[in-house]
Write a structure and sequence with these properties.
Order of helices and strands: EHEEEHEHEHEEEHHHHHHHH
Strand order of the largest sheet: 3-2-1-4-5-9-8
Low-confidence stretches: 332-336
Shape: elongated
CATH architecture of the largest domain: 3-Layer(aba) Sandwich
Largest sheet: 7 strands, mixed
Helix content: 40-55%
CATH topology of the largest domain: Rossmann fold
CATH superfamily of the largest domain: Class I glutamine amidotransferase (GATase) domain
């Protein structure tokens, strides 16, 4: 039996190809670094691996201290394959003649190292290495818009999706160009460490936490977050962390360091909705999670989500959803 107080350690192996696109590494890993600082339930242990102990980068900065490609990966590991370029800043493309052999070593390693239970994450053109290893065949995937034709040629059995920030298909996660790697890693952090952590990391990076292009609609946990107003974010963070709490505008105004009237004004201006509407949306999102993960009765759902009654839950729910709460039930046994 595991100790619930011990953090979940997730091993992350970042594959560094020759002439790596530096932002493909720095962006996603910075997400993980900040996620480790924001919470202690999940720890991302990052290691940099590759076919050579050193590598050049897209901006001309040399990278050292790269570990050899390991013979075996631990269960539950995440392998991140970064993209590369043939035209580094201030470099001579002709000097990249040996890169093909190094990339071939990565492809062969991927082919043998990736097994069920290992999540393969490709950033930008890193998908091409995964495709050469045959690891995207039969999967939905994407890559940088300039590489989609190459990806389709290298992985004819894959379903290449264009105009997507990222695509998740089972244990294969692929992202579009450059900064989309940050979006994908924020998505992974939200899955493993929670929405609140991912939102805090996104705000630290001064990026809007976006969804993948295949998602039918914006997650309610992300609505109203496309701004950088610190006081409004403090209020939203507090509500998202504990939607069931009986929040008043006055209490939230104290958190924001504003008067209730001013909070209402700036909240509408930056979040695009009222404070009470935001609280109710978070409670409805929590209610939906309870509904899909248990068989408790609707009255209990309403209470756990912070609603005063099932009538209030239904009233808020009907404004946000076309189907009644009962349609959200998942295939789970009854729970207390």
């Amino acid at each position: 039996m595991t100790d619930a107080t011990q953090p979940l350690d997730i091993a992350v192996y970042v594959v560094v190809p020759p002439c790596v696109l530096l932002l493909d590494v720095a962006g996603p890993v910075e997400v993980l670094r900040k996620a480790n600082l924001e919470q202690d339930r999940v720890r991302f242990a990052v290691r940099y691996i590759g076919p050579s102990s050193t590598a050049g980068s897209s901006i001309g900065l040399a990278i050292a201290g790269i570990e050899p490609l390991p013979e075996r990966l631990p269960d539950g590991a995440i392998v991140v394959v970064s993209g590369s370029t043939e035209t580094p800043l201030g470099g001579d493309p002709a000097a990249r003649a040996g890169d093909f052999a190094l990339n071939a070593l990565i492809v062969e390693w991927l082919r043998t190292a990736i097994r069920p239970g290992i999540r393969l994450v490709s950033i930008c053109s890193g998908a091409l290495l995964a495709a050469r290893a045959g690891l995207l065949d039969g999967y939905d995937c994407t890559t940088h818009h300039a590489c989609t034709e190459d990806l389709a040629e290298l992985a004819p059995a894959a379903r290449v999706r264009e105009n997507r920030l990222y695509v998740e298909d089972g244990e294969r996660l692929t992202s579009a160009g450059i900064t989309a790697g940050i979006d994908l890693m924020l998505h992974i952090v939200a899955q493993t460490a929670g929405h609140t952590c991912a939102l805090a990391v996104a705000r630290y990076l001064v990026v809007y936490l976006r969804r993948g292009g295949s998602d039918p609609q914006l997650s309610p946990w992300l609505e109203g977050r496309n701004h950088i107003h610190p006081a409004v974010h403090r209020v939203q963070d507090a509500v998202a962390a504990d939607p069931a709490r009986q929040w008043s505008v006055a209490a939230l105004a104290r958190l924001a360091g504003a008067s209730p009237r001013n909070l209402s004004r700036i909240f509408n201006e930056h979040a695009g909705m009222s404070v009470s509407d935001y609280v109710n949306r978070m409670r409805a999102a929590l209610a939906r999670e309870i509904l899909t993960g248990s068989r408790v009765d609707l009255e209990t759902v309403a209470t756990r989500a912070g609603f005063a009654s099932t009538r209030q839950l239904r009233r808020v729910w009907n404004r946000l959803h076309d189907q009644p709460p009962s349609r959200m039930r998942g295939p789970f046994p009854p729970t207390a």
